[in-house]
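Risk register update: the risk of archive-format incompatibility is retired. Evidence:
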Amino acid sequence: MADPYVTLGVPRTATEKDIKSAYRKLAKELHPDTNKDNPKAAERFSDVTRAYDLLSDKDTRAKFDRGEIDADGNPAMPFGGFGGGGGGFRPDAGSGGFSARDFEGFGAEEVDLGDIFEGLFGRGGPGGRGGAGSGGGFGSRRQAPPPPRGGTIAYRLKVPFVDAAALTPQRITLSDGATIDLKLPAGVEDGTQMRLKGRGQQGPGGAGDALVTVTIEPHPFFVRAGDDVRLELPVTLDEAVRGAKVKVPTVDGPVMLTVASGSGSGKVLRLKGKGFSRKDGGRGDQLVTLEIQLPDDPAELASRLEGWSDTTNPRNRLGV
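Archived output:
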């Protein structure tokens, strides 16, 4: 393989960020999925990935910079430095092996070959325990990290208030044109995020994820209060005084609500299970606050009340 710096198109002084940025750019450009009719692009993609594997690891990059390993990660001149002017080992003609005179450069009559080979092959010498297969000898390389996945694509999903309360599935169109029905999670609230695996950008190691952030739209008359829904319900004076059954809107559709006779403005009635879903699987309630409305033209009402007056003081509890 060529010089990894040249392959990635970065200088030797490049930072980790520079190397990663260069790799992502080339990987996106040369990925086999986008170059099916260009075999040279696939070959370049393989070279770029190997170059990134070597330079993205601090240890292997330092060894390469010092000349200890080559561009393929193999040791450079593994037999260099032994013997005298001839270099290398000389086999003993009589024994087929090595003699003490072959190691005169070490200044000793006898040399323990195990100690020498231990540095090259690992403990036990070639073929022994901890040899080349143990990870300390020739050909041992750091396992290349998996190629990075594609980036995350962020979406913002506006959900109608009633749909959020009732957990109505939402249809969403992704950047690739695909349309899916998204199931809202129990306990959904404004800012809830949902991760869609493999729905993000394509990358050398596969597609990234999509991240959907929920925004719950406000409602004309419903207001959320934790897991409950609040509603201010107008009632007539006649309904409040005499009592009545009135139709009330809820997130699940209208229901009938009994207003007891003598109910005043501000009285709160509770509709069980008509609120937002909770994470434990239950649901909150709908809290209905009564508001007595007088007729637009109070003349008729005034005539009916002729000769009658309310002598109580509704402000007495306020000290006035």
